[in-house]
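Homework help board

Subject: predicted structure for assignment chain

Our instructor gave us this sequence and asked us to write out the predicted structure in token form, then describe one feature. I got the tokens but I'm not sure how to describe them. Can anyone check?
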Amino acid sequence: MRRYETIVILDPDLSEDQWESVLERVADLVSQLEGLLVAFDKWGTRKLAYEVKKKNRGYYVRLDYCGLGHLVDEIERFFRIDDRVLKYMTILTAETVEIDQIKEEIAQAEAAKQTSTQEAEPVDEPIPSEVSEAETSETETDPTEDTREV
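My token output:
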């Protein structure tokens, strides 16, 4: 099995539901043709380098998946037919991959993501800039006073 990466640029004027339907179709294709979907990275709407189909912006999505050649052919055929897709490009990232190793990478990435979200939860500690006025008035000195010793 080989590992591929595909960048897809979708029409930015579509609703999020329409973007999701395209991505769901790709996920279905991968599972139907005995592939393994490693990652979906939604990069969001960005400005294009040049105008494509009279559009200056596009919704970028990166797909990382494992499969055989006929899977790539079917995904690219779907992108050619679908008018919601402005551009796409597929590259081969690894000639041979071990599925078990890829599944372990996915599990480790999910575990790291869960721990980072748990650490990112806000803690109810006072912010140093929110020190009460009473505390600051005690430490402040009058700038007109002469504090030098004689």
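Reply (TA_rk): Your tokens look well-formed. For the description, you could write something like this. The chain has a mean pLDDT of 82. That's the kind of observation they're looking for.
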